[in-house]
Design goal:
mainly beta, three-stranded antiparallel beta sheet, about 170 residues, binds zinc ion
Length: about 170
């Protein structure tokens, strides 16, 4: 706002107020079984569509393509490949914890073997030569698990040539 008499600009401030915004929502049966299986068995389940056979990880109740209700859960691997990734250099508040995660850190959408969709999570690496689309990763679980998505500590980069003839097009030759 300009002061008409002097022409100088008055500095104004906006404060955020309390930003505490607690929330809760139902995971549904499929989501609950997904997280419970990670918690209890360190394994992944996906929801398989009875119409098009796509396997969703994380599971959802309705297929995004053919809109059929999904009720079947099938096991998928704890290994997969990166389908999109980023190395985060600019800190911001992590919605999972409410605090800023130290930067830099790696994050990716990961398609687990046996799944058709990708799960977003953190990586164990910020190596720009290795964090790439097509890189192979494996889930690392927390020792103490509570039934939350962060029971997966992160995904660790593994030898991208381990799986011959993989869907990412890499081979051992
Ligand atoms: Zn479908």
């Amino acid at each position: 706002m300009a002061d008409r008499k002097t022409g100088q600009t008055e500095l104004l401030y906006v404060t955020s107020g309390d930003m505490y915004q607690p929330y809760s929502y139902s995971l549904g049966r499929l989501g609950a079984e997904f997280l419970n299986t990670i918690k209890e068995e360190k394994r992944f389940l996906g929801a398989r569509c009875p119409g098009c056979n796509r396997v969703y990880v994380p599971p959802r109740s309705v297929c995004g393509r053919c809109h059929m209700k999904m009720e079947e859960l099938v096991p998928v691997s704890d290994e997969g490949e990166i389908v999109a990734c980023a190395i985060i250099e600019f800190g911001f508040v992590d919605p999972n914890t409410g605090i800023a995660r130290p930067v830099p850190y790696g994050t990716a959408f990961i398609r687990l073997d046996g799944a058709d969709t990708a799960l977003p999570h953190f990586l164990d690496s910020v190596d720009r030569e290795k964090v790439k689309v097509g890189a192979r990763v494996k889930a690392v679980f927390e020792e103490t698990r509570t039934g939350k998505i962060m029971d997966i500590k992160h995904f660790a980069l593994i030898d991208q040539y381990r799986r011959p003839g993989g869907s990412n097009g890499f081979s051992v030759e």
